Amino acid sequence: MWTLMDSPVGELRIIEQGGAITSIEFQPFGDVDGRPRVERDDDCPVLVEAVRQLRAYFARDLKEFDLPLAPAGTAFQERVWEQLRGIGYGETSSYGQIAGRLGLTGHGARAVGLANGRNPIPIVIPCHRVVGANGSLTGYAGGLERKQTLLELEQDALF
Q1: Does the annotation count 44 as an active-site position?
Q2: 115: domain range?
Q3: Which of 21, 80, 127, 130 is catalytic?
Q4: Half-sphere exposure for 101 (CA within 13 Å, toward CB)
Q5: Going residue by residue through the chain (159 aa), what tens digit of pLDDT does each one get?
């Protein structure tokens, strides 16, 4: 099932399967034919709760999500995504720092960046909180403008 919601970073499509959120997509949505593969259900309890929590987040009233999540990825990607969940609201971490926490050397930061870019549940799994080693905004699957908006939203809420 899926639903749509408006947000400060554009329309979001939230997808659930088996009682857990599996994807949050930015517009334009990725389907080849422009249509979702399953039915829309704006009354699905998991989706209703996801929309409620996302609205609270964008209103600066929620700092930690409490949703059932089921991101699909490789074992390595899932390890990276778990690290992302440990980056607190209003904080950032670099690709290299995450690589270090995972015990990676060499091109570890690059591997973390690739896994970060495959995160299927942005915002809730906060891949926008990962920045370059010098603090610069680097790639974001949703676009750098969205990344900046999300980071600014969290910074503004702290002050």
Answers
A1: no
A2: 75-158
A3: 127
A4: 16
A5: 999 999 999 999 999 999 999 999 998 776 655 555 678 999 999 999 999 999 999 999 999 999 999 999 999 999 999 999 999 999 999 999 999 999 998 788 899 999 999 999 999 999 999 988 777 777 777 778 999 999 999 987 554
